[in-house]
Amino acid sequence: MLKLHHDNPKHTLHTISAFNFLSEAIKRTIAEKDIDLVVMGTQGASGTKGVIFGSNTVKAMEIIRECPVLAVPKDIQFTNPMEIVFPTNFKTSFKRQKLIYLIEIAKMFESTVSILYVSKKHDLTELQKSNKQLLEDIMEPISYSFHHLTEKDVSEGITSFVESRNSDMIAFINHKHFFFNSVFSKPLVKEIGYKPIVPILALH
């Protein structure tokens, strides 16, 4: 729980009361306060075992596009994110502006970004190859590596990768056709295989 009275001179905490839906209240606050990052703590859907994030958090990650949203599962102890997993299917071209927060976080903590491609197919199309090369150019200032898993299910592939490597964070660009449709939707909050111990950073 956040305490308004603390001894850390680097932080100033304020409370805001709003009579509105949570996501709409957040969007309004982002606009009024010029917010750079939204951080949401969550314990899943009413504490349901195996459900990674509650519906408020998932909805915020889906609809808030003005700045990144970092979802932090219950009982997380902060550690420097030494490895950040970045899932992608290489089907959409990358923009430097969309990845600027990920680059800055990786620089700040000297993190390695592990770019994860989950697909049964080994060969990339010409478009995917072009997008991969563009991503290499964007990632040039930081440490990064490419990985490929031949899993049928994207969420299972991400899960097994994170678990096997004890990764510290997952970051993704919020293209609904890639991440949300395969991991979070139908139902909105979907059970996935690993324990909710890794923060997820939604970029836009």
TrEMBL record:
Show the InterPro entries listed in the entry: UspA
Q: What is the top-level taxon of the source organism?
A: Bacteria
Q: Taxonomy-wise, where does this protein's organism fall, top ranks first?
A: Bacteria, Pseudomonadati, Bacteroidota, Flavobacteriia, Flavobacteriales
The name of this protein is: Universal stress protein
Residues forming the UspA domain are 22-73
The source organism is Maribacter litopenaei
**Per UniProt, what is one Pfam family of this protein?**
Usp
